[in-house]
Design brief:
alpha+beta, OB fold (Dihydrolipoamide Acetyltransferase, E2P), 2 domains, 4-stranded antiparallel beta sheet, 13 strands, elongated
Length: 190
């Protein structure tokens, strides 16, 4: 989920920026240190929008940089458990589909793609059901639910997805499901 947050944090401004405009130096330091980085509590800081308050200006004996405490507004993306997300399939493997959601790629295990058994058709780079009724390829847009989230450092992030629930999956699957439900309701009314 995308969020705008007000964050209090410290920032190091390199010594070559001594004498520069403090506000600009702190904002540039925050952008260099925080933007694009994963924070296990916040998600990914996408953008530092504005710096509201700057305090300090301490020089530590072991570091020539200047350390400030700053309050700033940031745009972050934090995937949340059970959140329904839209994404694009960016890779397929024999064990599932990788779906890009915001700045992350989540894995939808092959057992979580549909209720049908799916196989990887390597020649066409598609996941297909046994009856060939459903297929999923790279660049397809899907709706999925987040079923597991673990954010650590840049290399050990894990987001698992499912598309097996009603209203999830590739758009044409969702439309097909809704049509079948509408037909069932019409039959029940007769």
């Amino acid at each position: 989920m995308y969020k705008r947050l007000t964050i209090e944090d410290s920032v190091r401004v390199p010594p070559q920026h001594l004498g520069d405009n403090v506000e600009e130096s702190v904002e540039n330091g925050l952008k260099a240190e925080k933007e694009g980085k994963i924070n296990s509590e916040l998600g990914v800081v996408l953008s530092i929008e504005s710096v509201k308050n700057i305090e300090g200006g301490d020089i530590k004996p072991e570091d020539a940089g200047i350390h400030y405490n700053a309050t700033y507004d940031a745009l972050v993306f934090e995937p949340e458990l059970h959140e329904v997300v839209n994404g694009e399939v960016v890779d397929l493997t024999e064990f599932g589909a990788f779906v890009r959601i915001g700045p992350f790629d989540g894995l939808c295990h092959i057992s979580q793609v549909t209720d049908d058994y799916m196989n990887l058709d390597e020649e066409n780079m598609m996941l297909t059901s046994d009856e060939q009724e459903k297929s999923l390829g790279v660049n397809d847009f899907v709706t999925a639910r987040i079923i597991a989230v673990s954010l650590g450092n840049q290399e050990s992030n894990k987001i698992n997805l499912t598309m097996r629930q009603p209203g999830l999956g590739k758009q044409e699957w969702i439309e097909q499901y809704e049509e079948e439900k509408a037909e069932e309701n019409e039959e029940e009314e007769e």
